[in-house]
Amino acid sequence: MSDIKSDKMGEGNSNSKRWFMLALLSLAASTIYTFPFLRYSYYEPLQNALNLTHTQMGVLQSLNGILSTLGYIPGGWLADRYSPRLLLSISLVSTGLSGFYFAMFPSYIGAMFLYGFWGISTLVIFWAPLIKATRNLGNKEEQGKLFGLLEGGRGVFGLLIGGLTLVVFSNMGESQEGLMWVIIISAVITVAAGLAVWFLFEDSEQEEQQGAALDGIITAMKMPTTWMIAVIILCGYSLFAGQSYITPYMTEILGASLTMGALMGLIRTYGLQTAGGIGAAALATKLGSPNKVIIYAFSVTTVCMLTFLIIPSTANMMPAVTITMLVMGFAVYMIRGNYYALVGESDMPLEITGAIVGVTSFVGFLPEAFIYPLFGYWLDANPGEAGYRITFWYLFATSLVGLTMAILLFQRNKKRLAS
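Given the sequence above, the corresponding structure tokens read:
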């Protein structure tokens, strides 16, 4: 009896340690992207502090996006060669330390250096190790729960850290000094997260082995499942990026106040990320298949985009548009929460997880390089409701492609298991 009791206690301790390490990864994934995407919350204050034009602000973000996209594949190679604990710690600490220079509001050239550096430190060194470390926290049946909770945890920590820094900024009169302290606080938290990962995170046995290097990337590219997952990620990310244009649609076309638009953006960014991530974990566990969750979620986004195309663009339709936006945002985050759980569910080789993540991320996140200028062009070339209609048609088609690919992947995995 004492042996049985001891085994149960050991299993409980093991589970507690796993969830603690997952919480560490969620904190790391939340805080590390603060600097390159600070403009999303503090665009005008940051522009004034750096003394930049709108074009220069755009160049900084493009530079970051290009280096990030080019770095996914070499990042996958690194993840299969070196310990995720080592890579994650280096990424977090170096990014956090760079924040202290950022808080000095450098020149345009200095800012270009920072945004280029973040393209490397927050993605090349960080992204694939994050996915690999998360995958190795559980078996195939737990992948949906793990990645869903990772996404939900990012939302929780993002809300807490973002709320803290927003209070500081507001209490300091929304001044340049207030923005400086927002950056310094974020830098301290990022460095602390890196140190916590180094001292508290434990690599699995699989992660401590040397990966397959370049051969792993070639092997990953030869696998049809790699490309199917890549297309699913591409469609899911396109929907994630495209839904941000619902806010200006509400304010510019339907007449919503700027305050309401900002509130909806906050709810969509952090609230729905938390709810969608946790919902993805729960549903994937119940259904026993992250792939099924993605199929259902793409079905919801397809219906939502069709609804946006059908609903008249009038002020009295604001409640219907708001509800549709919230439902769609929840579904989008459920897709995001299960992206990489597909790798484990599809029984792809564990030893080349980094390579698989690198290839699928390179293809899946390509929209970072073109989707924002594309939507901007459509809105500028077709003022008013017409531009948004074109954008919504694109997202509707994207959702259909994602749904189709998710169904094909599910059928492929079903045949593989049957054989």
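The radius of gyration is 21 Å. Try to locate this feature in the token string yourself.
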